[in-house]
Automatic annotation (TrEMBL):
A GO cellular-component term linked to this record: plasma membrane
Its membrane topology: Multi-pass membrane protein
Protein name, per record: Sugar ABC transporter permease
InterPro entries registered for this protein in UniProt: MetI-like, MetI-like_sf
Ranges for domain ABC transmembrane type-1: 92-307
Length: 319
C-alpha cells in the first residue's frame, strides 16, 4: 500500500513538473505576443478587477475616516433597504422600459442601414453616408444635448418656432414625461446608427459571394437574396449584439440620461444609475449605492448567461 501511494505521489509530482515545463515553453515561444497583450491585461487587472475589493462596502456601514477595514459590518442591510424602499419598483420600471425601448427600436435601423449600404453601387455615395452616420458616435452626450436643445427647446427651439408660426402651441418636449423617453430612444439611435451599421456591414462582407451568384442563377431577386442569404448570414452577429444589450438592460444609458434629464421628468426617466449617483455622491450613502450597483451587476451577469444559453438553444429556429 505504501509503495502504491509513493508511486501515485511520484506520478503526480512528475505530471505537475511536465505541466510547468510546457507552460514555460509556451511562454518562451510566444513571448512577444504575451508582451504585446501585457499592457491591456495589466489595465484590466488594475482598473476592472482591482476595484472589486470595494464591493465589501456594500455589506458595511462605511465610514470614510475608518476605511473599509475599520467600518462596521451590517450584512444585507443596504440591499433590504433598497428592495423595501419606495423607489425600488419605480426605478426598476423606468430602467427596464427605457432599455427595452432602445433594444426594440434601436436594433432594426442598424440592420436596415447596413443592408441598404451594401446594396449601394456608388462607392462615393456609400462612403459619404457611412461617414455622415458614423460621425455622431464620436460626439459626447453633452454636445448632443446642445443639439437637441437647439431643436426642441420650448422657448427657442427650431421645432417650436415652426409650430408657433404654423398656429400651434409649443410642445414642452424636454420637460414632458410623455415625450422625454422617446427623445432618449431616438437620440440613442441617431448617435449609434453608423457604428451598428459598420458591424453588420463587416458581417455581410464575410458572406460567401458564391451564394449570391447561385441565387441569381436560380432567379432570385434582390429581396429574396436579402431574406434568404444576407439576413441569415448576419444572424450570429445579431444574436451577439442582442446578448450584449440584454446584459446591459439595467444600465439604460446613464451618461445620456444624466446629461439630458431634469427634475421635471424624474417620474419617467429616473433610473437605477441616476438614483445611485444621487445616493452615493450627493447624499454620501456609499454603502447603499454600492449595494445597488452590485445588485445591478449580478442581474446583468445572469441575463448575459441566460441570453447566451437561450440563443444557442434556439439558434436554428431564429430564421
Amino acid at each position: 500500500m505504501d509503495w502504491n501511494e509513493a508511486t501515485i505521489s511520484s506520478r503526480q509530482t512528475s505530471a505537475k513538473r511536465n505541466v510547468g515545463r510546457r507552460f514555460l515553453a509556451v511562454l518562451i515561444k510566444y513571448r512577444y505576443r504575451y508582451l504585446l497583450i501585457a499592457p491591456g491585461l495589466l489595465y484590466v487587472l488594475l482598473f476592472r478587477y482591482g476595484p472589486m475589493y470595494g464591493i465589501i462596502v456594500a455589506f458595511q456601514n462605511y465610514n470614510g475616516f475608518k476605511g473599509i477595514s475599520g467600518s462596521e459590518w451590517v450584512g444585507f442591510k443596504w440591499f433590504l433597504t433598497f428592495f423595501n424602499g419606495p423607489d425600488f419598483w419605480h426605478l426598476m420600471r423606468n430602467t427596464l422600459v427605457i432599455s427595452l425601448m432602445k433594444i426594440s427600436f434601436g436594433m432594426a435601423p442598424d440592420i436596415v442601414m447596413a443592408v441598404l449600404l451594401n446594396e449601394a453601387r456608388s462607392r462615393w455615395f456609400k462612403r459619404s453616408v457611412q461617414t455622415l452616420t458614423y460621425m455622431p458616435h464620436f460626439l459626447s452626450w453633452i454636445i448632443i444635448y446642445g443639439i437637441v436643445l437647439a431643436f426642441l427647446s420650448t422657448s427657442s427651439g427650431l421645432v417650436n418656432h415652426w409650430l408657433k408660426d404654423s398656429g400651434f402651441n409649443p410642445v414642452p418636449f424636454l420637460t414632458s414625461n410623455e415625450w422625454f423617453r422617446w427623445i432618449l430612444v431616438f437620440t440613442d439611435i441617431w448617435k449609434d446608427l453608423g457604428w451598428g451599421a459598420i458591424i453588420y456591414l463587416a458581417a455581410i462582407a464575410a458572406i460567401d459571394p458564391q451564394l449570391y451568384e447561385a441565387a441569381v442563377m436560380d432567379g432570385a431577386n434582390k429581396a429574396r437574396q436579402m431574406w434568404h442569404i444576407t439576413l441569415p448570414g448576419i444572424r450570429n452577429i445579431f444574436i451577439l449584439m442582442l446578448t450584449l444589450r440584454l446584459g446591459n438592460v439595467l444600465d439604460a444609458g446613464f451618461t445620456q440620461i444624466f446629461a439630458m434629464y431634469n427634475p421635471l421628468v424624474y417620474d419617467s426617466v429616473d433610473i437605477i444609475d441616476t438614483w445611485v449617483y444621487r445616493a452615493g455622491i450627493i447624499e454620501n450613502r456609499v454603502g447603499l449605492a454600492t449595494a445597488v450597483g452590485l445588485f445591478k451587476s449580478v442581474i446583468g451577469l445572469i441575463l448575459v448567461i441566460s441570453a447566451n444559453r437561450v440563443a444557442k438553444k434556439f439558434d436554428s429556429q431564429i430564421w
